[in-house]
Structures
1.
Amino acid sequence: MALLEVRELDKVFRRGARAVQAIDRFSLSVEEGEFVAIVGPSGCGKSTFLHMLGGFEPHDGGTMLLNGAPVRGPGPDRGMLFQEFALYPWRSVIGNVAWGLEVQGKPKAERIAAAERYLKLVGLSAFRDAYPAELSGGMKQRVALARVLAFEPRILLMDEPFGALDAQTRELMQEELNAIWQQTRNTVLFVTHDIDEAIYLADRVVVFTARPGRIKDEIRIGLERPRRADVRKSAEYMAYRNRVWDSLRDEVLKAREEFK
Ligand code: ADP
Ligand code: MG
């Protein structure tokens, strides 16, 4: 069995007489150590899916098994990283990274050692005692990543984590995440609307349909690892880009029709 097994997942939002089917009989398996990116038009249910996996949002049907156990509510086996940086402004960088371990009741020396290890991994050891307000957007998101990695979750759930960053910082963060992943080999489910980000980072790109979200297509990305930044200029990369865009294009158009 794969590390994550989602079968026939259903989600309907109800408000009074109105019902919105956000996810429709959605199935997906993710193997241990696999990096899967999900792309899809805006409003197709990507965030809803991640919130359900995180245990923050109930589902209406189907099953989600992580390491063989059904998902029921939030837990430290799933590390969540969203667009908002969500750092505690009153805690130093090291205090923020150590926070999750404090919640888990780890002894102080152990949590500081672990926090230092992960800060080093994201290249921010020198900012150990700084406060979030003193950091750039990219640095804040690196601290947030170190914090979630320090939990040592079985799977990382990332929802457009670089969406609030400017284009240059975003590209650098993608390179950084690739380098970090090369060392940690975490299992990752990464939601983005950015095709380039998806192809550059993932082993497999899953294309969602317009709402209700279903799998339209799955594309294995065979680009060699570790991935160099200039792989984005290669013919092989461009072929993947065209392949994903061909699949996504119709769905983006359908999603736009809905708002007319
Ligand atoms: P995405 O992340 O792919 O852009 P979402 O998962 O945020 O899409 O939303 C999927 C659909 O579910 C949208 O039509 C959205 O309006 C609807 N939706 C999301 N959250 C709620 C909610 N709390 N109540 C009602 N409808 C919601
Ligand atoms: Mg979203």
2.
Amino acid sequence: MSEVAAAFRALYGYEPEGVWAAPGRVNLIGEYTDFNDGFVMPLALPHTAVAAVARRADGVLRLHSADIAGPVVELRTEGLEPLSGAGWAAYPAGVVWALREAGHDVSGADIHLTSTVPTGAGLSSSAALEVVTALALRDLYELPLSMAELAGLSQRAENAFVGVPCGIMDQTASACCTEGHVLHLDARDLTRRQIPFDLPAHGLRLLVVDTGVQHALGDGAYAERRAGCERGARELGVRTLRELSYARLPDALRELSSPTVRGYVRHVVSDNERVARVAALLDSGDVWGVGPVLTEGHVSLRDDLRVSCAELDLAVEVAVASGALGARMTGGGFGGSAIVLVEEAAAGAVSKALVSAFEKAALARPRLFEATPSAGARRLA
Ligand code: ADP
Ligand code: MG
């Protein structure tokens, strides 16, 4: 019996019906593009949220996380209210709410979970929590829902129940990624393509640098960027910035009066183009060629969208200066993590340079680990 199942038994006094896992993710390229109907390219991490779950017929939902000090949270499935707070429990409770809203008869559950996805590090621990809950309930209640539909319901939970206006990337990555691949996702029609991303075969590694910082600034900034992108689209007479081709970008920029919005539009349109370029490079087997595109993406996030911060800039700058092929912040920014594409032989030197640069700048030691493209959500037992 797995540890999580044993903990469920100790907590609730009976055996769970099953155990499920859903991963966190890093995004290789395509940032702040999903809510503009654009393109993204995430990969799943080996880090997962794992949940032991059993159904209940009595309308009670009990939630417990091994990672949060505190008692079991007990709710009633009928009384679930969006934006009611509930702290961490809002993520799984929001999924139950979204399933029921969509007409699925989820009558209750006991859930115990734990996660190895670092929280608040830009690695989507929240999506992992939602997707593992959604998948467990789908399987137990035999709901006719695809993985992509589970991702959509999980996003709805985060948007409407928790109150975070995220796009569709994180939940889709957690639900739909496959081992050894990046996921090319068109956020407009949700078309997915798994692209092989075999780093060892090319003598490469993808490192994650978790800066450990999360600047408060990030909270309102995401909504502000969203609003700015919508304003840009309106002024340019397109439904979303996705409709704007890269070829039309120079003309479009001349039509925009606000320099801020001009920067947002340039970032989104150019990052969509970078996703296309990375897809073409991977398709042609040129994984090394991806490096400079990542760094280009970082400059765009730093200077045009302005969602980076000193710690992320330092990580990228030091990684590239010490021999990485490319690097960029990943996720929402204002702290969190950067990714670094590096030759296997240079990985040690780059890691050392990062640690010593952070030390020199009197910053907390960054957490470094390797991102191996891992499996999406699945049943474990
Ligand atoms: P990210 O998704 O980038 O990690 P978020 O702020 O979106 O950051 O989500 C983090 C939140 O998700 C935490 O504050 C907590 O409420 C919830 N969470 C994540 N992992 C766990 C866990 N193992 N147990 C309980 N809650 C968790
Ligand atoms: Mg999140």
3.
Amino acid sequence: MDVTLSAIKADIGGWVGHSVTHPETLEKANELMAEAKDEGTVLDYRALNCGDDLQLIMTHPHGDNSEVIHGLAWDVFSSCTAVAKRLKLHGAGQDLLSEGFSGNVKGLGPGLAEMTVSERTAESVIVFMADKTASGAWNLPLYRMFADPFNTPGLVIAPSLHGGFSFEVHDVLEGKKIVLNAPEETYDMLIYLGSSGRYAVKNVYHRDTGYIDASASTQKLSMLAGRYVGKDDPVLIVRCQGSYPAVGEVLEAFSNVNIVEGWMRGSHNGPLLPVGFSSAKCTRFDGPPRCIAAGFQLAEGMLIGPLDMFDDVAFDPARERALQVADILRSMGPFEPHRLPLDEMEYTTMPEVSKRMESRFEPIVGD
Ligand code: F6R
Ligand code: MG
Ligand code: MG
């Protein structure tokens, strides 16, 4: 059976400040999605939150980029924005950059990851959701999952993975893309993946079969809006087991510190904390950036789950190391590399401040 898995998310208002999504907005989302399931628009759904982002995970038969599904998500976000406005939540409707819906959520603000798959006998998938960080935050874990044998031994010892994976990488500033093959092009690929502010992995494919294995949201909110409106807070879907990395190989990619951009005012580097659902609450310095992992088995399009994958003491050391890095970075205050480098500050609120100083600069003469 062919089924499309869509993860569409938006920050439609935070409680308190930018900490989390309010339970009443989640209730509204669940109510509307239940109606959509009754009407047969979706096969199944889950409405979750990571920090202040409302996450709609949906299965349906409509394929990628379906106007029906994207329109449904837009309507749910709009109705939840009305709840957010009534409760006077912070930044109500923040990510809905357009007045109305026009065929597809791409370019309108919400983040989107989706894939259409032929459901296997056992279809294990993990949906990763992050808050207070940018598209590109998944580059390092995706590299580890699909190209690093020290993370994924299956690349070496499992015949079904040995042929490698290809990475579709997007230049999010110039709107260009390139496909690079692992393992033979990994050195070239790392030039781009290492610059995660500009290049983001969109999709990963299994090279022997050409099947899609991972898909991430890569939209850049600041580019869409032409100003800083909040971070992208990306989502990622990964299929696991069989011809793909095992669940544990996929999760292992989060066992080391990954320093990402985002955090306070979208202007700071900080560690991406892998946390259980109950800790998906951004408080300290509006963060630190964090991500949750919702595991599912698909059964004829039904979402069997979620299983809270990072709710495991085995990730405690990873969290502790990340929090030590958070302390070290915080001690640097407004200095790089805690604060983002100047060229990336262009996409924050800082240019407004530096504009005031422009006329006071004079040429250095005689030095
Ligand atoms: C980061 C984020 C927050 C806000 C900060 C100021 O992605 O959302 O750190 O940038 O709380 O928020 P405003 O400008 O809404 O008062
Ligand atoms: Mg917010
Ligand atoms: Mg957010």
